[in-house]
Design a protein that fits this description.
alpha+beta, transmembrane, Membrane protein, membrane, about 55% helix
């Protein structure tokens, strides 16, 4: 594999890692609610 091909593979992997990081961050910071029913009753919590 020549040097340009190696650089292309590294660039593609870097873009994939950055894209996955952005996707994960957006999923974690997404507003939502959690509803639980247990022995203590009904509990509703927002994740923000």
């Amino acid at each position: 594999m020549n040097r340009n091909g190696l650089y292309a593979v590294i660039a593609i992997l870097l873009v994939a890692v950055v894209g996955f990081g952005i996707y994960t961050y957006q999923q974690q910071s997404r507003p939502g609610i959690e509803v639980r029913v247990d022995d203590g009753g009904l509990s509703i919590n927002g994740n923000n």
